[in-house]
Amino acid sequence: MITAERKPLSEIKEMIAPYRKILIVGCGSCVAECASGGEKEVGILASLLRMDARKEERDIEVKEITLDRQCVYEFIDQLTDLIDKYDAVLSLGCGAGVQAVAEVFSQAIVVPALNTTFIGETKEAGLWVENCRACGDCKLGYFAAVCPVTRCSKGLFNGPCGGSKDGKCEVDPDTSCAWQLIVERLDKRGQLDLLEKVYPPADWSRQQGKGPRKIKREDQTI
Amino acid sequence: MKAESRLKRVLQKGHFAVTAECGPPKGADPKVIRKKGKILKGFVDGVNVTDNQTGVVRLSSLASCVLLKKDGLDPVLQMVTRDRNRIALQSDILGASVLGIRNILCLTGDHQSFGNQPQAKGVFDIDSVQLVQLVRQMRDKGLILGGEKLTEPPDLFIGAVANPFADPFDYRVIRLGKKVAAGAEFIQTQCIYNLGRFKEWMGKVREHGIDKKVYILGGITPLKSARMAEYMRENVAGMDVPEEIISRMKSVPAGEQRREGLKIAVETIEELKEIEGVHGVHIMAIEWEDAVPQITEEAGLIPRPDV
Amino acid sequence: MDQKSAGLKVTFFFCQQIDEHQDVNRRALEKEFGSEIRFFPLPCSGRIEPQHLMRALESGADKVYVITCPEGACRYREGNMRARKRLTFAQGLIEEIGLERERLELINLPAGTITTIDKLARELLAREALVGPSSLQAQALEGKKLGVA
Q1: C128 vs A17, which has greater pLDDT?
Q2: Which chain A residues contact residue C94 at CB under 8 A?
Q3: Whole-angstrom Cα distance, residue A122 to residue A127?
Q4: Do the beta carbons of residue B1 and residue B295 sit within 8 Å?
Q5: Domain total for chain C?
Q6: Which residue ranges make up each domain of chain A?
Q7: What is the fold of A2-118?
Q8: Which residue range forms the structural domain that includes residue C79?
Q9: What is the pTM of this model?
């Protein structure tokens, strides 16, 4: 999923300061999974903003709504009747959601309550770790399903580097050395020979694109 | 007269080679490098210049190598893949060759978070193995990445690094083999304090026949103090400093620890000379370059051969 | 100073396992204090969520208690530990808007406590009355655990 973390309240307050009526929009997908932008988090943020306003004797009206997904028009459409009643939308979607809403309602002021961070997995309850950098050229088949782009701090394709110690990365002792994992896994299944050849330089244009990347599927169009 | 690699000639002629390392200053000052060069001249075959080591901004390796070349030394350009993409790397390789530099050491580089520019974007467009392969291809086939032809190929003796002390231990030799297969012609290892482990590694190297395909120079860093030994053990990744070395340094009063560190360095070099497959020594006496003449003399490496 | 005139609005979230007759036992208090106190029984204190605590404060509570079973005695094993983590998280949230952490308080009953919800509530309210609404800090200094009734 795409993970995100809520911005500090001070930053959120600064963004919505000019507005009195706020529509807080959550998302029931990725950000709900990582406990930052789902229905619960929308409720918490709404309470905090109302209490804060009361403390500072400010007038504020906060409406809460959570969409199943904030990056898909069919769901964003549910805001159509609400949008004009509010001065600003405080989105708890990931960056994709924030922008999708802003695209659909081009006159609306949409601000992000979250810092979108990475693509990752739920490793255990309360712990999310990055495992994909969307390079557009998945090489997991060659590296025992351990992504060297994401999980090796230096993105080596012919690792490990000289800083791998006791299975940990030199950059962070809590981070496993991805190359140690790759070597161990391949060794266990007798496939170390997969690493014999020099893996060639990557085609980074597939990750960088020429500006924002896109996918077009004619068979999927209406 | 066409520029040549003295280091290559020394190794090809079968002599035990000596290289040393030189750290550039944090400023636009040519005097520091030239001074270090003068100290080392005559005591070494090649001089490495580090490339923004540890991610700390310093006078560039390329510029420093040019200064050393002018003063009659044989510089080894260290090039990391952390800071430059393939366009810049290939361009600098051509530039180095044109400026008379004949040796290159290909490395990935320390992660940028260690240095004084932790907010910098770590490039890592290619890794050190791919860089070795690239330089080799540029030199021997006159081709850049993607296959386009160069008008004039660079002339460089190609080196890479090896760390016998990092993990996973067993895989290290396979990775060394990969670097050799990619085109590495000489190897400089991480500094050796644990001779036992190094010998074990060399055993594996010989087992795989790698010593016959590449020149290996064992790394030496003389210890200045017991504290330095402890610091290296705790804080430098991929470093193996055995307890005996630390106690040996501690057993000597502070004023005599430098002397002891030099003794250990010389002893280690004497051992290296006896290990089959070790073709030389690489002395990394960073900020203690004036220890190199003493070490090489006491280790019986002076005078350097006439090649 | 009697409890009523302290004028504090207090909300009690509490684990039902503490008092099997909680339903009946809290009626008297609810009658006596009216809207000043509210009780929310939970099947396990671990069911408490930060947004419940937010809403309690938002609806006017000056102080919110979460009362859990003794450590190690949670019927569902980690429920009371979870309650503590969530309460701590919620304390961080209210600090962001300048409210004192002490407005939310976890009461972890000492092992072997046998009591009723009304007794418990009265003791806590008495503590509030003595100390007064403005010295939440002082209450924190007093300590988090309640003495046996």
Answers
A1: A17
A2: 48, 51
A3: 6
A4: no
A5: 1
A6: 2-118, 133-208
A7: Rossmann fold (3.40.50)
A8: 9-142
A9: 0.88
